[in-house]
Design a protein that fits this description.
Blueprint (H helix, E strand, L loop, with lengths): L6 H22 L6 E6 L2 E7 L4 E7 L2 E8 L2 E7 L5 H4 L9 E4 L4 E6 L13
Antiparallel strand pairs: 1-2, 1-7, 3-4, 4-5, 6-7
Length: about 120
């Protein structure tokens, strides 16, 4: 007796393979960033070059975060928020990467590194 492949399993395997190929292509085409933008309450408060090592204290009405740029990477090294998920996230370096501290309403995003995607609309 020959075992037949269930059509549902074939479809599931095909979708998983397609997803893996797409993820690999996206990962292989990442571009290194050029700048680090700091936003508090969606307002830009600072911009740094990713190629220059520096430290910066991000003060907001909600708390304090410490940003470190070193070796072409940016990371939050300290925060006084309760969960410190932004610190645990680690370093970012590719265009489009970001670190977000929700309690402090802070966004650290990497920009540059080629043709940045331009937004053509913003949804509210």
């Amino acid at each position: 007796m020959k075992a037949r492949m269930n059509p549902d399993r074939v479809l599931l395997l095909a979708l998983a393979a397609a997803g893996a190929v797409i993820a690999l292509l996206v990962w292989l085409h990442r571009e290194p960033g050029a700048q680090v933008r700091v936003l508090v309450d969606n307002e830009e408060t600072a911009v740094f070059s990713l190629s220059e090592d520096t430290e910066y204290e991000i003060r907001s009405p909600y708390g304090v975060n410490r940003l470190e740029i070193s070796g072409g990477r940016a990371r939050l090294t300290d925060a006084d928020c309760p969960d410190r998920l932004c610190v645990k996230q680690g370093a970012v370096r590719y265009a489009g990467d970001s670190i977000i501290c929700l309690p402090h309403r802070v966004v650290v995003e990497i920009t540059g590194g080629g043709d940045d995607l331009e937004l053509d609309a913003v949804a509210k």
